[in-house]
Design goal:
By secondary structure, the chain is of the alpha/beta class. About 35% of the residues lie in helices and about 20% in strands. It folds into 2 domains: about 5-255 and about 470-485, Glycogen Phosphorylase B (Rossmann fold); about 280-460, 3-Layer(aba) Sandwich (Rossmann fold). Strands 1, 2, 3, 4, 5, 6, 7, 8, 11 and 12 form a 10-stranded mixed beta sheet that branches. Strands 15-14-13-16-17-18 form a 6-stranded parallel beta sheet, sandwiched between helices. Helix 1 packs across helix 19 (about 470-485) and helix 11 (about 280-290) crosses helix 14 (about 365-375). It binds adenosine-5'-diphosphate (ADP) and alpha-D-glucopyranose. Adenosine-5'-diphosphate (ADP) binds near residues 364, 390 and 391.
């Protein structure tokens, strides 16, 4: 018998994505669906999804619905449709007052209500569907009130009597904090006593914290990050509550969707390659550099960067390191991403200073992300912290050697190359400073100049397997631990 899983997420690839949360929501639910589990996946019907012409159809018994959050009332309805390339039905919560906006996230005073509506709509639709989930699976702060709602506002409903809740923390850097004056909007009734009282006194409500306190199981996206967030350096205030969870906190490394990310059949690439024949990689490098006007940098090792440009990603370390390397023509660079203006400006200034070696593309492009993974020789991920990280795992499959800081999922997915043994898949540096990153890049560049080592590195990297078949099974093990065999 399959598990019945109510899965709620603010992002879903490729329909609505700002980062890895979208990739993981999609890949994990598709894995469970393939396995035969009975999934009900709820995501907001953002404007950008509506504009994609998916041919969604209204669910006739989920129309003209209403939810109240204190004095705020919202009407919504539910549409169903599938994402390209999948037959898993998705349930889109269509509430124009909250989701018909240009971005996925906002900064308005109703931000918490947008995702509370998503979470409660998922529970109320489960009721109307007569769907009794074994597992309510919530993701990040947006849906972290799910577990507490289940224990309070929805506790009366026998439908949920056997339901256990899981909160997956993709990034503890975003906790969804809002003002205590909004407490009444949560609809907890007498359950308000379960809110974190010291925080309330201090005038705030922290969404992530309530998921950590009340989910039956808390997971995060790598074993190392699971340990790190129990310390003050990485826990960002959540560490005492996470430590208190004991074995109720587990780290499961994300997987990679190799249907999307594999140089043997990447749909964005005109030429394919594999571990036993990497010639195509050089062809793609030449094509990309010519297309970007960097033909003169063809003989240089090419660094790649695809990232949200925020402090988490270690972009601060680049200014003291890259200009000097570029100045002596040690490498080229193709960078893709958007985020904080200071980081965007830095990359734009690098391109101006070294126009024959650097291209910076500001913005978001799936296509260019795939090209960079394939065409670059070295992939940079010097993160300050990294819950899991996906790009370093993509890089491994493309034989693009990752230079990463030893933290979180980077430490769990990349291993240090050993010259004496010829083992290892990349270069890891420990200290979060310019000297660390400089050492990492110089080490990779030195190995690049020694074909025997570079060949080993690429072969080791491309042999790694982080498929969802393996990682997804670890989630199923946890479901089983919570509710027994389905
Ligand atoms: P995070 O979720 O913290 O951003 P991950 O490494 O887990 O980090 O996931 C990032 C995902 O977003 C990857 O699939 C990556 O390719 C993608 N990505 C990030 N920035 C861009 C961009 N500017 N254009 C295209 N894809 C991007
Ligand atoms: C977060 C993290 C990233 C992780 C992703 C998916 O955005 O920053 O490290 O891979 O979620 O779990």
């Amino acid at each position: 018998m399959p598990y019945r899983v109510l899965f709620v997420s603010a992002e879903y690839a490729p329909l609505a994505k700002t980062g890895g949360l979208a990739d993981v929501s999609t890949a994990l639910t598709r894995y469970l669906h393939r396995r035969g589990d009975d999934l009900r996946v709820f995501v907001p019907y953002y404007r950008r999804i509506a504009e994609q012409g998916l041919g969604c159809v209204p669910v006739d018994y989920l129309q003209d619905l209403e939810l109240a959050f204190g004095p705020h009332r919202y009407r919504y309805r539910v549409l169903t449709g599938t994402a390209p390339g999948s037959d898993l039905p998705l349930y889109f919560v269509d509430c124009p007052a909250l989701f018909d906006r240009p971005g996925i996230y906002g900064s308005g005073e109703d931000e918490h209500r947008r995702f509370l509506l998503l979470t409660r709509a998922a529970l109320e639709c489960a009721q109307r569907m007569g769907f009794a989930p074994h597992i309510l699976h919530c993701n990040d702060w947006h849906t972290a009130f799910g577990p507490l709602l289940l224990k309070t506002a929805y506790a009366w409903d026998r439908l949920f009597a056997g339901t256990r809740s899981v909160l997956t923390i993709h990034n503890i850097g975003y906790q969804g904090v809002f003002g205590a004056a909004h407490a009444g909007e949560l609809g907890l009734g007498s359950g308000e006593a379960l809110l974190h009282q010291d925080d309330l006194q201090a005038g705030r409500i922290n969404s992530m914290l309530h998921g950590i306190l009340y989910a039956d199981l808390v997971t995060t996206v790598s074993p190392t990050y699971a340990r790190e967030i129990c310390t003050p350096e990485f826990g960002l205030g959540m560490e005492p509550y996470l430590r208190a969870r004991g074995d109720g906190l587990v780290g499961i490394l994300n997987g990679v969707d190799y249907d999307d990310w594999d140089p043997r059949h990447d749909r964005y690439l005109p030429v394919h390659y594999a571990a036993d024949d990497v010639d195509g990689k050089a062809v793609l490098k030449r094509q990309l550099l010519e297309r970007l006007g960097l033909g003169g940098a063809l003989e240089l090792p090419l660094l790649g960067l695809v990232s949200r440009l925020v402090a988490q990603k270690g972009i601060d370390l680049l200014p003291p390191v890259l200009p000097e390397l570029l100045g002596r023509r040690a490498c080229g660079l193709v960078a893709l991403g958007s985020g904080e203006p200071r980081f965007e400006e830095f990359l734009a200034s690098l391109q101006r200073a070294y126009p024959e070696q650097v291209v910076y593309h500001r913005g978001y492009s799936d296509e260019l992300a795939h090209w960079i993974e394939a065409a670059a020789d070295i992939f940079l991920m010097p993160s300050l912290y990294e819950p899991c990280g996906l790009n370093q795992m993509y890089s491994l499959r493309y034989g693009t050697v990752p230079v990463v800081r030893r933290t979180g999922g980077l430490a769990d997915s990349v291993s240090q190359y050993s010259r004496s043994h010829g083992s290892g898949t990349g270069v890891l540096f420990d200290h979060y400073d310019a000297a660390g990153l400089r050492w990492g890049i110089e080490t990779a560049l030195a190995l690049y100049r020694e074909p025997r080592h570079w060949h080993n590195l690429m072969a080791n990297a491309m042999a790694q397997d982080f498929s969802w078949e393996r990682q997804g099974a670890l989630y199923v093990d946890e479901y089983r631990r919570l509710v027994g065999p389905a």
